[in-house]
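Protein Record: Sequence and Backbone Structure Tokens
======================================================
Scope: a single protein chain, as residues and as a discrete description of its fold.
Tokens: labelled as protein backbone structure tokens, with as many entries as the chain has residues.
Position: the record begins directly beneath this header, with no further notes in between.
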Amino acid sequence: MPDARIEAFGTEFSHDDARDRAAVESLNEQQSVNLPIPGWAAARDLEVTKRTAVLFLGLHLAGTVFESLGIAMILPILQFMQAGNDPAALAAESGLWQKLIDAYGFVGLPVTLPTLLATSFALLLVRQVFFYARTVYAAEARFGLIADIRRRAFRNFLAARLDYMDGQRVGGLINDFTIETDRAATCLFSMLTLLAYAILALVYFAMLLLISPTMTIASVVVIAVGMLSLHGLMERSRNVGADITDANQTLARFMIERLKALRLIRLSGTEAAENAEMGRLVERQRHSFVAGQMLLARIGVILEPIIIGAGLLFLGVGHQVLGLGIEEMGIFLIVSLRLLPIAKQAATVRQTVLSTVASLGAVVRRSRDMEALQETAAGDAPLETLDQGIRFENVRYAYTASSEGEENQPAALDGVDLFIPAHRMTALVGPSGAGKSTLIDLLPRLRDPQSGRILIDDIPIDQFRITDLRSNIAYAPQSPQLFDVSAATHIRYGSPDASDEDVREAARLAGADKFIEALPQGYDTPIGEEGGRLSGGQRQRLDLARALAGRMPILILDEPTSNLDADAELAFREALGRIRRETDMTVIVVGHRLSTTADADQIVVLDRGRVREAGSHDALIANGGWYAQAFSKQQGKPSSKELSVAHG
């Protein structure tokens, strides 16, 4: 019956969602190929030092030695009591007793029952001190490892190439950085604990050998049989562990996506469907965890009866067949009973290793991927100013497939030749998918072109220090990315040394000063998560102020007015005019609203990754190409081409 229930837990959801089961099987395969147990390569990847392992095992070994000595003292205590408290008689029969008497004499103690009992108690007390130290050190080391993994993961995340991040899901990243990191650390320290239990078991088996080699060998056989009986259970633990990891990742992705789409869900009337899906996912997660706990509980159910039954059998055999004395039988029984929880705990820890090794594999693979796909710093030349301009020479860039089986997409940029003059405003326009956003990603080297080159003042940008390059470029995205901080703190983001006057001047240039001053606490007013306390236009102008605070020579604005109403767009255009009049920044604007870009010194039309036309607004209107037609449509007027067709 328990087997059937566990199988049900493991397979119930395969009928509901084949995709989930395929993901688990894939995870199992990756786990078995990339991360074989014991996983010491994973420990090296996550920088678990030899010192950590040696200190942990050393504390455990010291505790084990004192525990075994404390238990071993029970034998001379029993012998002393049976001999009528006569150590001389015992010394005459046993050389070990003579050595014990000499040791007591060396420290000036008589051999009496109280001193023997006190010695055993003291040894066991010292054992407790070492085991306490081991437990505290293990906790510090484990949580220190978790903190180190998260710090390194976040550092690698910030340094990973954008083309790698394009294919990652936020929910999966968050799950790997949080839940799976905890489980990975549990797996690694469970491996160390398993080794510690092995050391403890060896010490006890050595003690048993001194009492009765025959019974010890029989005990080893019994325990081995018990462990082998758990083999199938351990394999299922590995599968359930992979299922838990996949369930965690799936639920995390679902939660992140839905938390960002509350308005869409409500306005689409899909609350019931989303609740049902949430219920299915949490139920799958619950079933996976319960299946793991059921497997864990079965360890004791299987192992304890085998070992207890064998122990009772050995008592009879030892007394009736081997002729062991009461004291030898007593110490053998004590050690055997001490081995029972050790065997059970060792099996439990091994099951923990198998059920968490998928998490360890996920964390290690994530760490390896991000470390292998980091940005290249390239050159070391400084960049201080922009005097002449920015040149794109035959630049090509194509996005790679985000997963196996997908084909690479057509080139987003294909042979782009373009010059952007310094201290002027250049607008990049064109239909959706023309390559505008890709082009501006290449300038600060968020992406690197596959061919061609980009030059600033005739120097290829890969010769500059990447930190210098980016510190000279201010960027305001289409959707402002605002943290839950004060208005002033957001404006200082990226320019921490900006003075209060610099902050206010940036806000004035961006047209944000008046609404900021009208806030309850002025510049110290919290703006809410993602700027939720501000309107769309206010968020856009506040973010523009941030971009202006550092007075960087290059300013990139990615579709700054696409989500604004007419009044907010007008306010933004006025701010853009102030920037052009009062600064010498080189401004690059990506825009769909051509009214925002009409005043640019140069307008570049991109289409299917190529420059189709370039020039001033008037020149492009006269040209009668894509720009002229798009501008006429946005103004609500028929283009010259449409008029000629109408009069044809």
